[in-house]
Amino acid sequence: MVHMYNESRYRARKKYYEKEENKEKKRIYMRAYAQRPYVIAKRRKYSFIYNASSEGKLKRHEWYIQKKIKDYENKTT
Predict the structure, then answer these.
(1) How far is CA 50 from CA 27, 41, 43, 46, in A?
(2) What is the dihedral of CA 63, 69, 72, 73, to 10 degrees?
């Protein structure tokens, strides 16, 4: 269950960033945020854990093969 305050802030942020001039502000902020050292470290840690599981690699590989098959079928028809 989400608290009423958080729910109203969610709607307010969504409404604010739907405007085109504010979308660019968000893009600029997110680019700067992504350059912060602790964010980079968190992203590296996540990717290391994510790529460590062989089960995940097999699923991604299978997905990629299926995607290529669909692309090829669409191209030939």
Answers:
(1) 26, 14, 10, 6
(2) -120
Question: Residues 66, 73: contact at Cβ < 8 Å?
Answer: no
Contacts of 14-21 with CB under 8 Å at 24 or more apart are none
Domain extent at residue 8:
4-76
**pLDDT at residue number 11:** 94
- pLDDT tens profile 12-35: 999 999 999 999 999 999 999 999
Q: How many domains is the chain built from? A: 1
Count other C-beta atoms under 10 Å from residue 22's C-beta: 13
Question: What DSSP state is assigned to residue 35?
Answer: T
